[in-house]
Amino acid sequence: MLGGYDMNQFGVASQGKLIEKKNVAEAFTSGHGSPFIAQVSMANAAKLYKAMLDGLEYRGTAFFQAYTTCQPEHGVGDNMSAEQAKLVRDARGMPEFIFNPRRGETSQEAFDLKGNPSVDRDWWRTKYATDGAEYSFTVAHWALTEGRFAST
What we know:
The protein has one domain. The protein has a 4-stranded mixed sheet with strand order 2-1-3-4. Strands 5-6 form a two-stranded antiparallel ribbon. The longest helix has 13 residues, at 45-57. It is built from 6 helices and 6 strands, in the order αβαβααβαβββα. It is an alpha+beta fold and 152 residues long.
């Protein structure tokens, strides 16, 4: 799980909480016994459905977190939910993972990161369609595809 700053910043100049992003799935993996956790999306429908079935069969707590756009509020077309799910996964904004304690005793055994591009790198490397130049695809690239992040 990501580290971060003290959540209880104080003083006149405080700009609020200075903490890195954490999500519920990361919190569950770091101290809630042995839950089954699936952070998945429609970017990989087969993995989503398999994770749901595996979680339902798990004898213990199962937690599912799934990404989806809200097209009007996020400023994307009605036909773009699967594409946006793929982009946020590829940008590492919400990487897919399954944490299945039945796979082993250690975190390395329990985690499954398959489905994410370039799991051995910090960022997915892809190419521009226009000139073929290679670049790292980051959260900023995904955010540019959603109107909710546009400057108003």
